[in-house]
Amino acid sequence: MLPESTSLPSFWSCPSSKDESIVDRGMIPLTSWGTTLESSSFVLLIGGIEVGLAYFPFFACLSSEFRLVGSILGFCYSLIWFAVTVLQVSQCPHGQFLGRYETVMFYWPSLLCLAFLLGRFLHMFVKALRVHLGWERQAEEKSVLEAHQAAHVKRLLRRPHPREGEATWFQTRIYEWDPCFQFPSRMIGTIVLAFICLYLFIVIEFYVFVFVQDELAVFEGKLESYVASVNQTGNLTPVILQVKELITVTKGVWVVTILPASLTCVSYLFHILACYRKHIKKLWAGDKHFLPLKFRNPASSESVVAIARYSGWQIAYILWGYLIIHVVQSLCGMAIMYGLVLPVIHNQALEMLQGLGIGILTISIVVGLMVLQVRIAAGFFLQPKLSAADKQKPLALNNRKAFHNFNYFLFFYNVLLGLGACLSRLFISCVLGTWLIARIDRTIMQSGYEGADMGFSAWVGMLYVDHYHTNPVLVSFCHILIADHRERKLQQAIKYCYIDQSAGPRVSARSRTRWLLLQTLVNNPRLVMLRKPKSGHSSREFTQILLTCSDC
Predict the structure, then answer these.
(1) Of 310, 280, 324, which is closest to residue 149 (Cα–Cα)?
(2) Could you list the residue ranges that cross the membrane (predicted)?
(3) Which of 21, 264, 401, 440 could form a disulfide with 455 if both were Cys (CB 3.0 to 4.6 A apart)?
C-alpha cells in the first residue's frame, strides 16, 4: 500500500458509490462522440486502434532484428506497464461487488502476462549480450523447412509400420500426440487469449449477477413488507409467494450453471485445436470431402481476410457461446426444478410421478409404434434376401395389396405423429444450434445454406491459408529448390579454384535419379499404379517386378 501522502491520478482513484460509472469519472468521454450508429462504429474502430498502438511496442521489440536494443526497450516498457498495474491494484485492491481483492481477481491475468514478458525480454538480453561479447556464436538464418515438417515428410516416404500395442481410449476418442505436427503460434495465442477473455467475461458476469441480486433483494424486501401489511390475507399474496420462489430458484440455478457452462466452453477450446489438426491434415492429404461443396475452392482474397478475422471472431464466438449456453442450461435447470424438485418440496410428489409416468408411457407408445412399423415392413413387405451373406433384404416390395392397406390405415395416425415430429425437429435444432454456437470449426446451418455462416467461412479460409503456406511437402520442395540454388551460386563463386575432380567414382545425375525413384516406388507400392504407362516390354516388366516385390 502507498503512504497517505502519496496520491495517484484521478482515473486511478476508487469510485465513491455504486452509481458512479466509468464515464462519470472521465475515463471514456463517450458523449463527445454522438449517439448515432455510425459514430459508434468509428468509436469502436478508434478504440481498437488505440489498444493496438498501446501494445504494439511489445511485438515490435520481440520481433526486432536488433536483439540487444529490442530486449532493453521491451524490458523497460514491460516494467513500466507492470509497475503501473501493480500501483493501480495496490491503490484499490477491494471492490464494491465482490468485496475483498476484487481488483486482484480482475487484473491478475495481466500481471501474469507482463511477468512472462519481463522474463522473455530478460532472456533475450542475456542471449544477445553473450553473442555481442563473443561468448556465443550468432544464430544462423532460420531455415524455410522446420524440423517437424521434415519429420512429417520423412514419415510419408517411409514404409508404414503397424502400431505397437493397442491404442488407449484417450488416444482413439479424444486426442493422440503427433510429434511430426506443431500448432502455429497464431492458434496457440488465440486459445490462450480466449481463456483469459473467458475468465474476465465470467468475472464481469458475476459482477452483474451480484448487482442484480442486490436489486432483487430490495424488491423482495418490498414484497415481504406488503405481505406483512395485509397479514398474508390479500389476493396477491399467493402470486407474491410464487414470485419470491421464482427469484430464489433463478438465482440458485444461475450460480450452479456457471461451472458447467464454463467447462463446456473450455472443452470447446481444446476441441478446436484437435479439429484444426484433423482438418489441416486432411487438406495436406488432398481430402476435401469434410467441407461443403461451396467451400472446396474459396477465393484467395476471402481467405486472406478470413485469416485476419479468425482470431478475433474465435474469441467473440466463445464469449457469446458461453453466455448463450449459460442461459440455455439455466432454463434446463429451472425446468428440472419446477418439474421434479419443487413438487417434492411442496408435497406433490405423487402428482408429479403420475404426470411423469403418463409422459413416459406416451413417448414409449409412440416410439414403440414407430419401431413396430419398421419391423412389419422388414418382415412382410420386403422380398427375401438374394443371398444368405446379405446384411439386409433388397428394396423390393412384397405383398403390395397388404402394403397399400397398411399405408392407408396408418395415414391418419402419421399425420398426428408428424405434428409432434415437427416440434421435436424444431426443439432439437434450437438446442443443438445454441449448444454449438461457440463451435466456429463446424457450421450450424443446413446443407446448402453454409455460406450464411460467417464464422465457419472464416475457419475454412484460415485453414486454406495455412494449408498453402505450411504444407510440409510444399515447404520441403521449396527448401530443396533454395538449397540447390545456393549450391549452384557457391559452385559459380569457386569455379576458378582448383578442385580435384578425379578423386572418387563419378555418378551421373540420371542414374542417381533412377535409383531414388526405384527406392521410392519400393517403399510406396501404391505409387506404381499411378505412374504414367510407357510403351515397351522393359517398362511393363519393371512394373511387374515392383508389384511382385510389394506383394512379398
Answers:
(1) 280
(2) 42-61, 68-87, 107-126, 191-212, 253-276, 317-340, 352-372, 410-437
(3) 440
